[in-house]
Amino acid sequence: MSENNILKQPFGMNIKMPTRTIQQGKETVEKHVGGVFEPLFSFIEDNQPVFNGSIAEEIEKYNLMTYNTGAMLRNAQAQITFDIKG
After folding, report:
1. Is the pTM of this model over 0.70?
2. Is 33 within 8 Å of 40 (Cβ atoms)?
3. Rounded to an integer, what distance in angstroms lies between the CA atom of residue 19 and that of residue 27?
4. Where are the domains of the chain?
5. Tens-place pLDDT, residues 30-63
6. Which H or E run includes 33?
């Protein structure tokens, strides 16, 4: 056999498969491969505020509010508004 003749020979058993079978195989592979990463993608989607920084902004806002409230309470004068002598 010449080298050109070898390259023209079909590879494998030369079996023709219906296009629907190929499509079904493709869908099955996509489903199984996509199924591996689906929990990861749903976790990221559910916890998007953590990853985009809005949770950090909320925490910083509440820390500032706590600090300001504590500062006001530390500087406040005790006021007795009820009569303890009776």
Report:
1. no
2. no
3. 12
4. 34-74
5. 887 777 788 888 888 888 887 787 888 888 999 9
6. helix 19-46
**Measured distance CA(66)–CA(25) in Å, rounded:** 59
Whole-number Å distance between alpha carbons of 12 and 10: 7
Backbone angle region of 67, left / alpha / beta, with phi > 0 → left and psi within -120 to 50 → alpha: alpha
CB atoms inside a 10 Å sphere around CB 60: 10
Q: What are phi and psi of 84, to 5 degrees?
A: -90, -10
CB of 49 closer than 8 Å to CB of 55 = yes
Confidence class for position 66, pLDDT limits 50, 70, 90: very high
